[in-house]
Amino acid sequence: MAAADGVPAGRTVVLVHGAWHSPWSWHRVVEELDGDGIPSTTVDLPSCRSGPDGAPLGDLHADAAEIRRTLDAYRDVVLVAHSYGGIPATEAAAGHPAVRHLVYVCAYMADEGETLVGYAVPDPGPDILDPPADLEFGEDGTVTVKPERAATLFCADLDPAAAAEAVRHLRPMSATVLRQSPNAVAWRTIPSTYVLTGRDNATPTPVQRELSVRAGQVHELPDSSHSPFLSHPKTVAEIIAIAAGY
């Protein structure tokens, strides 16, 4: 349903994927939201969206601008971001009149000056993301996750077939975003919820615990990997619905 000016009436959930991911990652959550009558839309981040020459199209601030363009189409939004997507979402939502609530799903709830590589943990152990060992940097300015490590890092609680499907949807991304920080911080003024995943090898759970103290509400999924939208879609949708006031 749309208002007289064409802008959708009612509250809409806007879903932002994480590094190397795509809007596909949200498909099971979208199905759950649809089943509950909750409208949603996804954002395809330019830093992970390849152009005709195969090169990523943008950096963190281009990602934030793309999110903001999506927000501009609505007047009442719950903005949900996964992992790296929390950083451009934090910038995009700052001062935007449509955003009523922020939901960070095992995401980097960054402050000004904080970067993705700055969250790397020392001596991570065999399963936790170790950027020097687990990432491959291309001459074209892209960075990818080594294929043999992707399932362990992102999908540790999925069965092998589901993990393999998720890994097939991963994409290269711009290496520039690894060292960029948000220009503005929405969570200082907008209510927020954090979804903490207890078996996360990509955004280490101890890092999440430190970040989640910035949120007004925290929901913990103790058995979830870095892909709760695939392994726990109903629970994630329920948390989003609570944040949205449905």
Number of strands: 9
Write down the secondary-structure element order: EHEHEHEHEEHHEEHEHH
**Spans with pLDDT under 50 lasting ≥5 residues?**
none
Structural class, by secondary structure, is alpha/beta
Q: Report the mean per-residue pLDDT as an integer.
A: 93
The share of residues in extended strands comes to 15-25%
The major pleated sheet works out as:
6 strands, parallel
In which range does the helix fraction lie?
A: 25-40%
Question: Rg from C-alpha positions?
Answer: 17 Å
Shape: globular
* Distance between the amino and carboxyl termini: 17 Å
Largest beta sheet: strand ordering: 2-1-3-4-8-9
The total of helices stands at: 9
Give an overview of the whole structure.
By secondary structure, this protein is of the alpha/beta class. It has 9 helices and 9 strands. It has helices at about 25-35, 60-70, 85-95, 130-135, 145-155, 160-170, 205-210, 230, 235-245; strands spanning about 10-15, 40-45, 75-80, 100-105, 135, 140-145, 175, 190-195, 215-220. The strands form 2 sheets. It has a 6-stranded parallel sheet with strand order 2-1-3-4-8-9, sandwiched between helices. Strands 5-6-7 form a 3-stranded antiparallel sheet. Helix 7 links the parallel strand 8 and strand 9 (about 215-220). The protein is globular, with a radius of gyration of 17 Å. It starts with 11 loop residues before the first strand and ends with a helix.
